[in-house]
DNA sequence: GTGCTTGCAAACGTTTTGCAGACTC
DNA sequence: GAGTCTGCAAAACGTTTGCAAGCAC
């Protein structure tokens, strides 16, 4: 299984930092690697519990935190609901529609000019983390 | 007082929409108009209560909601804490430092290119509302 | 008088925490 | 064996809601 292979180097990194590899953690990580795009902590917990019913939501939160510290995942606030988590390697930004809540992913490259400008004018290093851009999608812009 | 003058047209708009003008609402609005920049609902409540101790936080939330519907204020999520409210007329964006939490305001104009590009490529109409940009400020970028 | 608005208290949804036992290394 | 991680329950946080009384119009 591809997911299992992808998990190994991450678990190795975790161990190298003094962390422990448990069955819960393995299940959480492999589930996360198998998810395309975003998941909320709640949705991820549900998926993990389909395999290991005793894994608690707080364990998922704690391990996602750890994975974030390791630089493996990021979490993003898309709006008023729960945060979503995604692999850090999959760097992208989010267009969130104020009208219908639709989320569109856009490549990091779209923000290259803005990044350069913020760096030059404000000394600010733009990071893909936590970044959500709101506005109105094509459909919602039509109905005023 | 300047604040009282600025409040009148807003209260008139409120009345025109079928809303009622109460002492609580007047106090909340005048306090908000007297605040430069952002306030959290909690901070605004505290300031209002300095004048009218019986105004409850839930009343502040409800009225801020109403003001938002009237287009007078916007609220922005800067990070993990509470949302901040500001006058809609004062349109700007926020650079939030992931390291130290510092917030810098930048004029809307900085995002003009991005706006054009998102419109052209994605049909997405960028709005200043809810918009927070994270990264690292000059100081935090130095210490790696 | 109609019906919007209020204070209060209690609930909400998401996330964090304190604990004692279980587990990895 | 030392120290990390777990499930559980309970708290924390910011915000919303249901209610009966109060007030603006």
Helix content of chain A: 40-55%
Number of domains of chain A: 2
- Determine the number of helices of chain A (DSSP H or I, runs of at least 4 residues): 6
- CATH architectural designation of the largest domain in chain A: Orthogonal Bundle
Order of helices and strands of chain A: HHEHHEEEEHEEH
The CATH topology of the largest domain in chain A, please? Arc Repressor Mutant, subunit A
For the sheet with most strands of chain A, the description reads:
3 strands, antiparallel
Low-confidence region ranges of chain A: none
Give a short summary of the structure:
The structure is a homodimer of 144-residue chains. Chain A contains six helices and seven strands. Chain A has helices spanning 2-16, 23-34, 41-51, 57-69, 112-122, 138-142; strands spanning 39-40, 73-76, 84-87, 92-97, 103-107, 125-126, 133-136.
Please explain how this structure is put together:
The structure is a homodimer of 144-residue chains. Chain A is of the alpha+beta class. Chain A has two domains: 3-87, Orthogonal Bundle (Arc Repressor Mutant, subunit A), CATH 1.10.10; 92-142, Ferric-uptake regulator, C-terminal dimerisarion domain (Dna Ligase, domain 1), CATH 3.30.1490.190. Chain A is built from six helices and seven strands; from the N terminus they run ααβααββββαββα. Chain A has helices at residues 2-16, 23-34, 41-51, 57-69, 112-122, 138-142; strands spanning 39-40, 73-76, 84-87, 92-97, 103-107, 125-126, 133-136. In chain A, the strands form two sheets. A three-stranded antiparallel beta sheet of chain A has the order 1-3-2. A three-stranded mixed beta sheet of chain A has the order 5-4-7. In chain A, a hairpin with a 7-residue loop joins strand 2 and strand 3. In chain A, helix 3 packs across helix 4. Chain A is globular and about 50 Å long. The model of chain A has no long low-confidence stretch (mean pLDDT 91). The interface between A and B is medium-sized, with 32 and 32 residues.
């Amino acid at each position: 299984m591809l997911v299992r292979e992808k998990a190994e180097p991450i678990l190795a990194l975790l161990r190298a930092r003094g962390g422990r590899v448990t069955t819960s953690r393995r299940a959480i990580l492999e589930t996360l690697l198998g998810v395309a795009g975003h998941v909320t902590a709640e949705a991820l917990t549900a998926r993990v519990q389909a395999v290991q019913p005793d894994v608690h939501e707080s364990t998922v939160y704690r391990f996602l935190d750890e994975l974030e510290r390791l630089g493996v995942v990021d979490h993003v606030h898309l709006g008023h609901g729960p945060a979503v988590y995604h692999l850090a390697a999959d760097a992208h930004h989010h267009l969130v529609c104020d009208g219908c809540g639709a989320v569109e992913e856009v490549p990091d490259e779209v923000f290259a000019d803005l990044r350069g400008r913020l760096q030059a004018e404000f000394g600010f290093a733009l990071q893909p983390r936590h970044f959500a851009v709101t506005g109105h999608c094509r459909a919602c812009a039509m109905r005023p």
